[in-house]
What we know:
330 residues, alpha/beta, 6-stranded mixed beta sheet, 13 helices
Amino acid sequence: xxxxxxxxxxxxxxxxxxxxxxxxxIRHSYGKRAALKGISFDVAAGEIFGLLGPNGSGKTTLFRIxxxxxxxxxxxxxxxxxDATQQPNEVRRRIGVVFQSQSVDIKLTAAENLxxxxxxxxxxxxxxxxxxxxMLERVALADRGKDRVETFSGGMQRRVELxxxxxxxxxxxxxxxxxxxxxxxxxxxxxxxxDELRAQEQVSIIVTTHLMEEAERCDRLAIxxxxxxxxxxxxxxxxxxxxxxxxxxxxxxxxxxxQRIEERFKIAATVLDGRVRLEIQDGLRFVTALAEAFPxxxxxxxxxxxxxxDVFISRTGHRFWVEQEQQELD
Length: 330
């Protein structure tokens, strides 16, 4: 019997009947700047799918298209079989959306926030009351339903946001940077809830994030950079593409050392953040060979297993966080 970890790392089937979201050659431009350059992927029913990328990668633009707030320049997005451009009302009935910015009314109680949300989707009377009670229990706020949201912690307010997005029983839940402003404990609790929601109700969840640790918790993810997908698969699959170990070397002249390594060992060596970076099988043994080949040239060494940041570096040539900082400066 497969373990929970094995089950999580196994790609889900995306046959026509099991596809919850289909993104097909979506393109979008802001004037002359291309924000999305023809990206495609499927999200299966009951899958947690991550959109990982730095600021400016296009993930927020794609989120707005999927939530029917923006029309793409080209391509199409199907949500539960309905075209987000041609049939936006049908899509809106089937999606729950939690935006990065707060949408709860902090002067209302948790129950009142859900009551107003239910009215927007046509819920009334006893069914609405029952659904409010059910959702407050689901997000572990049953004992705080009559309290004003302004008295809640950031994590509790985020759970009210989730409850609002789920009031009408959507088949697809869209979350834009859902843990922004939350402490580590609240982040952990939120992800535990998302796992539970997916497992119990087969809700498909799409999460935008710039946090590597959150991307690791997704069943599959698309890594975006400058409007293009540079990686697509499970976190395990993406890391395995690197293979072996990642070796970082500090030297007085990293550019010269990188060139000498390439000439001597016929492997790619790049200079990143003032250090020489290598991807190699059996890194420990190779470092020993390096020290013997270039005595005194290497000042320090670090060896690690590949991360999603390494995948990003391998595909783009620069660190994820450097790209993000540059976008913020721009």
